[in-house]
Structures are given as C-alpha cells and as structure tokens.
Amino acid sequence: MNPLLASGMELMLIGMGAVFVFLALLVLVTGMMSSLINKYALDAGAQIPSNKPNVIDNELIQVIKESVYLHRRRPGRN
C-alpha cells in the first residue's frame, strides 16, 4: 500500500475515533446532568404566584379581533 494512502487512512481513523469518543462523552455527561436536575430541581408543579390577574377584558378582546380583521384585509397578502 502506498505510504501516503496509509497515512491518510490512519489520520481518518484517528479523527473518526476522536469524534466518536467526544460524542459518547457528550451523551454521558448530558444524561448525568439530566438525572441530577431531575433529582435536585424544584417541583415543576410549583409555580411562583403573580400579582397580576389573569383576566382579559372585553375591550382588549375587541381590539385584538379588529387588529386581526384589518391585517387580513390588507392588500398584497398572499
């Protein structure tokens, strides 16, 4: 085999091996982080209460409807 071709194959195998090892470590570390977060994180159901009421008044609904209507009526819309 040509020494240049053998050197190229060796370099390719080393590069592919390095990428494989890096990706395998990335998967392992990501899995460990996920398990740690699930173990020590706050409960997902617990939410911080807000001071704002979660109510949309009728005036705001009418403004939104009118905006959508005007947007859809706009010329040049595809």
Overview of this protein structure:
By secondary structure, the protein is mainly alpha-helical. It has a domain at 1-42. Helix content is 69%, strand content 0%. It has helices at residues 3-40, 58-73. The protein starts with a helix and ends in a 5-residue tail after the last helix. The model has no long low-confidence stretch (mean pLDDT 86).
* Alpha-beta content class: mainly alpha
The low-confidence runs, each spanning 5 or more residues with pLDDT under 50, are none
Helix content bin: 55-70%
Mean pLDDT: 86
Q: Topology as H/E string?
A: HH
Radius of gyration: 29 Å
| Total count of strands | 0
Strand content: under 5%
Distance between the termini: 62 Å
Tell me the quaternary state.
Answer: single chain
Tell me the number of helical segments per DSSP (H or I, 4 or more residues long): 2
